[in-house]
Amino acid sequence: MTTSPGSKPALEPTSAPALGSDATERLKHALAGRYRIERELGTGGMATVYLAQDLRHDRRVAVKVLKPELAAVLGAERFVVEIKTTASLQHPHILPLFDSGTIDGFLYYVMPFIEGETLRTRLDRETQLGVEESVRITSEVADALDYAHRHGVIHRDIKPENILLHDGRPIVADFGIALAVSAAAGGRMTETGLSLGTPHYMSPEQATADKDITGRTDIYSLASVLYEMLAGQPPHLGGSAQQIIMKIIVEPVEPVTRLRKTVPPHVAAAIAKALEKLPADRFESAKAFASALANPAFASATAAIPAPTLGRPTGVPTWLFALTAGIAALAVGAAAWSWLRPKPTLPVSRFSIVVPDSLALSRVAAGGGTRVALSPDGRMIAYVADTPRGRRQIYLRRLDRFTVEPIPGTDNGLNPAFSPDGKRLAFVAGGPRAVKVVSLTSGGPAQVLTDSLVDVGGLTWSTDGYLYYDGHLAGDGLARVRETGGQPEIASRPNAPSESWHSHPSALPNGRGVLFSVARLRGASPFDIAVLDTRTGKHRVLFRGVAPRYTPSGHLLYVTDDGSLMAIKFDVEQLTTSGESVAIESGVSAFGLGWVELQVSPDVLAYVAGGTTNRERELVWAARDGKVTAVHPDWRKQILTLPALSPDGRAVAVGTTTGPTNFEVWVKQLDRGPASKLADVGLSPIWLPNGTEIAFWSTGGVFVGPADGSVLPRLRYARSQRPGSFEYSPDGQWIVASVAGDVIAFRTAGDTATVPLLAGPAAERRATISHDGRWMAYESDEGGQFQIYVRPFPAVQTAKRQVSVDGGMLPRWSHDGRELFYRTESGEIASVPVTLAPTFSAGTPRVLFNASFAFPFPFDVYPDGKRFLMTRGDATNVDARDQIVVVQNYLEELRARLPR
To answer: Within 13 Å and on the Cβ side, how many CA atoms surround 799?
Structure first.
């Protein structure tokens, strides 16, 4: 906020009363630990502004506090959520938002305090500005508006009071605040006696309470400000707000050259076009408006049309003109009353679904598929819960009830999906894995549709009579099966060599196509969104992201790697997008990489947030009895891959991320020793058998470097495919890698050509070699459920032995060769006694402890076999429960931010 000692604050008109002295003292006390309120700067129709000292950063700020009557209408939670969008705007001509929140009943937001004055103060003093300066100010503000519009934010209240002048440079204040207040009020602003926008600068669509506001509204308002800078008055004047609004709606704007002849023709033409009544007749963007102001060749037909006179036309009798004028006046009055009457809008509401503590959203299933489904009518939510006996079951929560009910026949279920009529529920069952369907109305046993190579990565029920699911029928693509059951079919095939697998399908409502996620073998951010044309069987990649969902408003929702919920226009018939994406919501974070739980219906949006969406994790030791202790509580990273222990157990290498395109390699000395970053770009670090070097995967292949960082890592083995995991054999002669559901190997010296070890329709991965170098353990779903198998190495085709019983993943050998550890489907750590010589044999597996806190991330075994190195969410958040967040009438906000 900018003010100078003798200037008027950049606020709404100062006729409204400020906060009372008692309220001000209460505010000072409430903010005492964060801001020291020094004095009031001014007050307006919506808020009071105070000069304050930011105690944490030792800087002067402006704290703007909404009026109590407005705060009562908005509600604290809603306002804080809406205003978050503004905080992301970073532009030299936009006043940033430092902070916002609610405290002791006050809703407030904090901005920089900048010495200077507002454009309103300048105009009050000088009335008119020079043509060049006026155009420069307008062009710089237009640049800020263009930036914000491309990020999905519309100001809605551009006026001289909100344009600050700091050393002659314009800065737009209160950016997005009007949107936050309008959206938070749920369209009820007219009921509060408060208003958004100043009448002189309102667009016609604002004046008629149109809920579909676009960036062209800001263009109209900015043109009105430029008009006033040049002409000394706004485009329309009146004795009351109602008169001004009527003129904005029905009267043309007098050309600016009639009030100031020195305005260049192209500037007048640009202003005329920007002040058109219909938004479609204005400039398509603020950037185009600025370009026209700078282009002497620009001309507008509108600028050349003289304003119509209100006198009696020649040759028309006086009585006929009077009668016609009277009828027209009545018609205009009736139309204006209709336009000005508030249009009903549905309030947008957000809340969390409450479920019993004993039947909370499953953490065991997190990261292994979807846990939540929303019925087509938005009235029911099916979710996966962990049962007291350590298994999974799907429960039904009707939004009009407080209780949950188990759905019979859904034991060990995952990936729930409602049928198009909402009467049945499909899901993926484990052990052996299969696609099943149960009736929600008549009951009865679950029907098995298929048990043919079903994977865990999502399920959707299409209106074309098929269920689409993550399968291995075509190199880890999508499969489909008829809703009546039968032989499954190939739906999509990953395009080699860049695509690794397809997952998380979401059927479009017309049966025309299926949206899904594509995992890539190359690139730092590995997930794209694609659409499958069910008529041709071909798919096309659209853009980067995960969890695509189509909305009835004609938009495509999706989530970025940083947890932003985005929207873009989507043609459901042509299967194409148009325009630019805009941010809709934040906090829909992915669990690990690519696992996002987002569901939509025509009126309801639901997503999962909470404990498992916190990607920052810490290293912990887990004893064989399950006792967990932190390695170094102050050292936390967003750890994504295996925590690889050095051969002597004194250090660990981990792969981390700091954003959607940043994957780093770190080496941490144990337990509380220092940590150092080994590589800015890398994944899946492992130790070489010599214990002094680390290898990791980066662009181009395998890089190797000293663990102490004394020499920068260098490319040692060029490879185009990125593996899910890899490791050296104990003798250092082989590298074994898991790539796209297959296991490959290549020698580290001599002939380094790739050797396919295991390749086929099943997913076979996470291969690891025993410490004597003779045996290879891996996980495979060849039987419909992931189990742990052991084969001789490198002669893997000579024998095979299954060692797990009830599902197994992530095998790890003990150093002494006496045990093989793995993780069960329920998130437990199990041990199998094994003998490696003279031949391999395995005993009966037994569960050591429940490690669902680390699910689904891998683990490593300490050399003595008495403890395990794992990761878990931030210790301060380890007990945080996941919650299902529901947003009702979300389309109101979606249409406002991204109109069709």
So the answer is: 13
Paired tokens of 891:
């389309």
Task: Cite the active site residues.
Answer: 157
The reply to whether 824 falls in a domain is: yes
Contact indicator for 694, 655 with CB cutoff of 8 Å: no
Same domain for 731 and 792, yes or no, is yes
Check if the beta carbon of residue 55 is closer than 8 Å to that of residue 36. Answer: yes
Are 679 and 665 in contact by the 8 Å Cβ rule? The answer is: yes
At residue 838, the pLDDT reads: 92
Tokens 């809920």: give the residue: 211
Whether residues 442 and 491 share a domain: the answer is yes
On whether both 694 and 805 belong to a single domain, the answer is yes
DSSP code string of 639-678: B-S--EE-TTSSEEEEEEEEETTEEEEEEEETTT--EEEE
**C-alpha atoms less than 13 angstroms from C-alpha of 396 in its C-beta half-sphere:** 23
- pLDDT at position 874, please? 56
User: Do 578 and 636 have their domain in common?
Assistant: no
CB atoms within 10 A of CB 627: 10
Strands 683-687, 675-679: pairing is unpaired
CB 655 within 8 A of CB 664: yes
Examine residue 17 and say whether the peptide bond preceding it is cis (omega within 30 degrees of 0): no
Q: Which two tokens stand for residue 241?
A: 């707000």
Other Cβ atoms closer than 10 A to 89:
18
Residues 131/267, Cβ–Cβ less than 8 Å: yes
d(CA 651, CA 765): 26
**DSSP class per residue in 694-717:** EEEEETTEEEEEETT-SS--EEEE
Beta bridge partners of 828: 850
- Distance, in Å, from the CA atom of 8 to the CA atom of 117, rounded to the nearest integer, reads 8
CB 160, CB 311: distance < 8 Å: no
One domain for residues 433 and 470: yes
Residue 213 lies in a domain: no
* Model pLDDT, residue 12: 32
Same domain, 789 and 856: yes
Domain holding 436, by residue range, is: 349-614+881-897
User: Do 481 and 506 belong together in one domain?
Assistant: yes
Mean pLDDT by 10 residues, the chain (900 residues): 33 40 81 88 77 89 81 64 69 84 83 85 91 95 92 88 88 70 47 51 85 89 96 88 83 92 94 94 94 87 40 42 42 42 62 79 68 93 79 88 89 92 92 88 89 86 94 80 93 82 90 89 66 94 91 89 83 91 73 70 84 69 95 85 92 78 83 90 91 90 93 90 85 90 91 89 87 95 84 94 91 96 88 96 95 78 95 60 83 78
At 385 the three-state DSSP class reads strand
Tokens of 399: 């939004």
* 813 CB-side CA count, 13 A: 27
CATH number at residue 797: 2.120.10.30
Residue 622, strand partner residues: 628, 868
Q: Is residue 27 part of a domain?
A: no
Spatial distance between the Cα atoms of 660 and 545, rounded to a whole number of angstroms = 10
pTM of this prediction? 0.54
Tracing tokens 């800087």 back to the chain, one arrives at 59
Contact present, 391 and 826 (Cβ < 8 Å): yes
Q: State whether 576 and 638 are in the same domain.
A: no
Q: Is the dihedral of CA 636, 637, 642, 644 positive or negative?
A: negative
pLDDT at 322: 44
Within a domain: 306: no
- Which whole-number Å values give the CA distances from 47 to 20, 85, 161, in the listed order? 12, 20, 14
Q: How far is 824 from 826, CA to CA, in rounded Å? A: 5
How many domains are there within the chain?
A: 2
The rounded radius of gyration (Å) of the Cα atoms in the chain is 32
The Cβ-side half-sphere exposure at 226, using a 13 Å CA radius, reads 34
The amino acid that residue 862 corresponds to is Y
- For the chain, how long is the longest CA-to-CA vector? 118
The pLDDT of residue 77 is 63
